[in-house]
Design brief:
Keywords: FAD, Flavoprotein
Pfam family, one: FAD-oxidase_C
Number of helices: 16
Strand order of the largest sheet: 15-12-14-13-17-18-16
CATH topology of the largest domain: Uridine Diphospho-n-acetylenolpyruvylglucosamine Reductase, domain 3
Largest sheet: 7 strands, antiparallel
Radius of gyration: 23 Å
Protein name: FAD-binding oxidoreductase
Number of strands: 18
Family: Belongs to the FAD-binding oxidoreductase/transferase type 4 family.
Organism: Herminiimonas glaciei
CATH architecture of the largest domain: 2-Layer Sandwich
Length: about 475
């Protein structure tokens, strides 16, 4: 191991080869602080060439590699195991914005770029990069691509996969594939780009990407609607889509318990209604015509929904501050959960038409098996992605409840499967759900995935123990 570390120091400089416990600690524990792994070193290359050199050294010395970006993942995808044999390769220094092409509506960025910085660079060019999620101030685009992150604007713009035109990748052998083509049509063989997106660092290192940009909308309007049931929310979604079409960019479902948690732990954040309601929907419109046009559309949807008795109350933000206050409530749900105590998280995807039935059925099954369990249900209703989290009963400690995680997961994931859904929508599989997917994917599908892994990474050095 000393020979390997010495070679790494010669390749990228001793300053960027971290081995002391105090220096490596921030890279070894996951964001939710559930697990701390061990690593022989944290290696921080400055660019693609240095990364390729490190990968070749890892091959020479048979050192497993764990790619890491902002370390904001939720499924232990960027954390090594506890053997101490792997090296973490952190891409946070590989963070340049290489090019903005406003005519082609693209931006070329390196994997370590913070998502919020990409949004800002696009804004400086009078363009929009629409990927947006709670961790955007610290997550990196490489991690977003590796997990095919979703976020709040999937309804209009799609997942990260849909926002990417080309990639640069360092293979598990240390070769560099330059696929940074800003083309919307390129039918010249297998789509290698899509192979690496969502692979969670098990097939190679994404080092740069060409991303789609869009014209800045002339207006963005936000509304918060109070409803009785998720089924009413689905009917409101259909109504909003029929009236607003592609202008509808956000449609977030939040249960009443979610908002009570936020208000309990962040008293300044409360729904702007006189009374509590069972469900809430956050709607956002992004209009290319004018603010007046967007206002007319949104108010028409709200008034029609009230006439049809779909919503019980609603407020339309009249300022940027009001809009931000509504979004802050939504974004503080995970933070409020963390303050309330540890909980059992599920990032699931359900066919949109079956979401109401899934929530009703699964709520009942959990109450039957775990009386008093509290469901913290919220998510991107427009694309079928629910964060269906389960908190401990009031009279039980969170640590005691966490011991039932396997049983809780079985109820939720079996119900997801029975409703034609997926047990991972946007967080990935990582190490946390690696064995769980074997219950729900066919032998044929798993064997195809293993064949791809074996073909591209025969030594199994790329993020071992993750995904498959």
């Amino acid at each position: 191991m000393d020979a390997f570390l010495d070679a790494c120091r010669r390749a990228i400089g001793a300053t960027h080869v971290l081995t002391e416990a105090a220096d490596t600690a921030p890279y070894l524990t996951d964001w939710r602080r559930r697990f701390t792994g061990k690593a022989c070193a944290v290696l921080k290359p400055a660019d693609t060439q240095e990364l390729a050199t490190l990968v070749r050294l890892c091959n020479e010395y048979k050192v497993p590699m764990v790619p890491q970006g902002g370390n904001t993942g939720l499924v232990l995808g960027g954390i090594p195991d506890d053997s101490g044999t792997a090296a973490i390769l952190s891409l946070t220094r590989v963070n340049r914005i290489r090019q903005i092409d406003p005519v082609n509506n693209t931006i070329t960025v390196e994997a370590g770029c913070i998502l919020k910085n990409i949004q800002a660079a696009a804004g400086d060019a009078a363009r929009l990069f629409p990927l947006s999620l709670a961790a955007e101030g610290s997550c990196t685009i490489g991690g977003n691509l590796s997990t095919n992150a979703g976020g709040t604007a999937v309804l209009r713009y799609g997942n990260t996969r849909e926002l990417c035109l080309g990639l640069e990748v360092v293979t598990p052998q240390g070769d560099i594939w330059n696929g940074l083509r800003g083309l919307r049509k390129d039918n010249t063989g297998y789509d290698l780009r899509d192979l690496y997106i969502g692979a969670e660092g098990t097939l190679g290192f994404i080092t740069a990407a060409v991303l789609k940009l869009y014209p800045q909308p002339k207006a963005q309007l936000t509304a918060l609607a109070a409803l009785r049931t998720p089924d009413d929310a689905l009917r409101l979604l259909s109504l909003a889509q029929s009236h607003c079409v592609s202008a509808l960019t956000g449609f977030e479902l939040m249960s009443g318990f979610c908002l009570r948690l936020v208000n309990r732990h962040f008293p300044d954040m409360r729904p702007p209604f006189a009374e509590e309601h069972p469900q809430y929907v956050l709607l956002e419109l992004s209009d290319s015509e004018s603010e007046e046009h967007a206002q007319t559309m949104l108010e028409h949807v709200i008034s029609t929904a009230m006439q049809q008795d779909l919503i019980q109350d609603a407020i339309v933000a009249r300022s940027i501050a009001q809009s931000q206050a509504i979004w802050d409530i939504r974004e503080h749900i995970p933070l409020a959960q963390a303050v309330e105590g540890k909980n059992i998280k599920h990032d699931v995807s359900i066919p949109i038409s079956r979401i109401g039935d899934f929530i009703r059925t699964t709520d009942a099954l959990l109450q039957q098996a775990f009386p008093g369990a509290r469901m913290v249900t919220f998510g991107h209703l427009g694309d079928g992605n629910l964060h269906y989290n389960v908190a401990h009963p009031e009279q039980e400690t969170d640590q005691s409840f966490l011991q039932k995680q396997t049983a809780v997961n079985r109820v939720v994931h079996d119900s997801v499967h029975q409703h034609g859904g997926s047990i991972s929508a946007e967080h990935g599989i990582g190490a946390l759900k690696r064995t769980e997917i074997l219950r729900y994917k066919s032998d044929v599908e798993m064997q195809l995935m293993r064949s791809i892994k074996q073909a591209l990474d025969p030594l199994n050095l790329m993020n071992p123990g993750k995904l498959i």
